[in-house]
Here is the input.
Amino acid sequence: MEALKKLGTERMEIQKFKPEDAGEVLEDLVEVLVDCVNRGSGISISFYPPLDPARARQFWLDKFEDVARGKRILLVAREPQSRRVVGTVMVEFPGVDNQPHRGDVQKMLVHGDFRRRGIGSALMKALETASLEAGKTLLVLDTLLEGDAEDLYLQLGWQRVGEIPYFVRGPQGQYATTVFFYKNLLEE
Ligand SMILES: CC(C)(COP(=O)(O)OP(=O)(O)OC[C@H]1O[C@@H](n2cnc3c(N)ncnc32)[C@H](O)[C@@H]1OP(=O)(O)O)[C@@H](O)C(=O)NCCC(=O)NCCS
Here is the structure.
């Protein structure tokens, strides 16, 4: 794996996933996704709790295939000593002729035991760098209104476009509003 960034205070390494790393990181990624969903963040990240680890595993295996096909970049945050993956984020490329410069940011996840230490921010900054290196200059994302991540994106200079009510639905049938953001990496 390629080391993209080391966090001074947390000594966490942000690395770009390569398909040959699959066996090394798969189970940690499963744990991060299951943890985030089962702690109650599921509505903002597509799944309802309790998330079956087998379903989470298949989710990541599909994403690994996308990486192998050049359809997305996946980053992982790892503890240098244990090598455990405690956070992740990825960007998917639309794959259409008229948007060769654009990416959709997805699944910004930090394990619940490791939050508020700057890992999410470091992952996003590293993803912006990796996207630029891949020739992607415009990134788009959406997140739950007043969810964990809204302030994080604002702090990193993302432009808040607006809200769509009733965009997602929770396990009890309740609707929630989604907020859309973009960042033009050429305006940094
Ligand atoms: C969102 C998430 C990735 C943030 O990860 P993190 O490592 O805790 O983020 P950081 O430590 O870099 O936080 C940076 C800033 O974002 C804001 N922030 C982060 N978590 C927040 C929360 N739960 N509530 C309010 N603001 C929050 C704060 O301003 C924070 O700065 P501060 O700690 O100095 O106050 C993490 O909470 C998570 O995995 N949540 C569940 C999954 C999810 O909702 N992902 C977003 C999908 S779009």
Notes: The chain is about 30% helix and 30% strand. The chain has a mean pLDDT of 93.
